[in-house]
Amino acid sequence: MKPKQQYFRAIAIGLGALAVAASAVSAGCVEAPSGLAPGPTGGGAEDGGPSDGGGLPVVSGRDLFESMQADLMSACGLCHDVAGLADTPFLAGPDRYQSFASWPGIVSTDPTHSLLLTYALTGKGHSGTNLDSPALKETLLPKVKAWLAQEAKNFSEPPPQAGPHIDPFVPIMGFNAIYLGALGPEFEGMAVTFQADVLAETTLELTNIELHPTSKTGLKIVHPLWVVHPLGKDPNPDPVDSFSNVDTIYQIGESGPLGPGTLILVNWSTDAKLSLAFELIEKYEPASPDAGDGGPTGGCKDVPSFEANARQQLMTCLNCHGGGNGQAVAAVDMTALQSDAAKACGQIRNRVNPNDPPASQLFITTNPGGNAAHPFKFGGQGGAFNTFRDNVSIWIAAEK
Ligand code: HEC
Ligand code: HEC
């Protein structure tokens, strides 16, 4: 099919989807918990159909993506598929659209802020093929821009009553790390991590939901609320408001589950986004830090095993987590790896699973065969990763 034909086909499909969306809106949707329902001006989809007058109707970016997928794969796939040379598999299959749209920084409410236009262009630091290279400038680049413009249209705001919130994002099907820095500088480096899986067309399951404060700051959270943002419709909070009873303090340097750590969202739909709001989120400082023992109470059970089996292996991570990259240190502080093994161990222990060592976050994020959005995956070398995992797992098992 010629590109032009494909483009019109995309529009035709888009209009079909629009009609479906419009009828679904007029038929009325799932009821939201009272008090959190979007106000009369909250959505914009109720009156006059799902368009905000900005030019492009709200249709899935999937069709535009599909019309450029082949070009994208031939220009970028060698390095950006799973186990590619770049360690950033934003074109991972089987659902490459899902991977691309969910990669942090690819889609944005302002297309000019997309990594594709701030990084993958000449002179911006990208070591691979750039979108403005002679072969792509007139072909792929305009398609990428059209797609980004469509995606920018497809953002909706969380219900205004929902409190401080993380803006809507497309979840990765797999491991997600959602950073809280957007809520204020005191939350820099803190994250909510979870595994997302679609169980059925309208059911999204989140498991292993954890909250990670930093090694410097603790956190208090009251009543987190997950909100689904269906394409072209009003935001739709978790109908069961599953985490309404959550009121939790995370001590400095000690991660923990968020609520029960699991959530089933029965109001999911294809190509929807998620957002996360909090009734209250604030940094937590113990009443008098120098009264008691001070410092984190957590820590490792078997520091000698950490020293014998993990320390040397983790040296690979020090380029970034040892001080070279502020975001990496804030996320997982390994600065004491060489000077104070017990302290480093206590931080790294937040990212392991002693009951099932290979399922530890340390490995999920760095596995070259996985799709997690982490910038280092052993340069695609499965053998080096296996050596890392096998050795570090000996220590992790000792933490049980
Ligand atoms: C020859 C390998 C190669 C090719 C081909 C390639 N890239 Fe990359 N890309 C990299 C590497 C390596 C990185 C990691 C940082 C760096 O070295 O720039 C990267 C990083 C990126 C990032 C930043 C990702 C992040 O999360 O930080 C973007 C965006 C990107 N590439 C876009 C593209 C696009 C779009 C194409 C195709 C037009 C492409 N790349 C083709 C090697 C490649
Ligand atoms: C090229 C730099 C770099 C290297 C090398 C690196 N990391 Fe990271 N890592 C980061 C950054 C940056 C973040 C925080 C991501 C953010 O803020 O979005 C991070 C975050 C993490 C997280 C938190 C979860 C997540 O995905 O955000 C884990 C776990 C992690 N790294 C493990 C490791 C391990 C284990 C190694 C060594 C085998 C390693 N990292 C090597 C840059 C790096």
Automatic annotation (TrEMBL):
InterPro entries: Cyt_c-like_dom
Domain of life: Bacteria
Signal peptide (from-to): 1-27
PROSITE patterns: CYTC, PROKAR_LIPOPROTEIN
Domain Cytochrome c: 56-152
Compositional bias (Gly residues): 40-56
Stretch list, region Disordered: 38-57
Keywords: Heme, Iron, Metal-binding, Signal
Protein name: Cytochrome c domain-containing protein
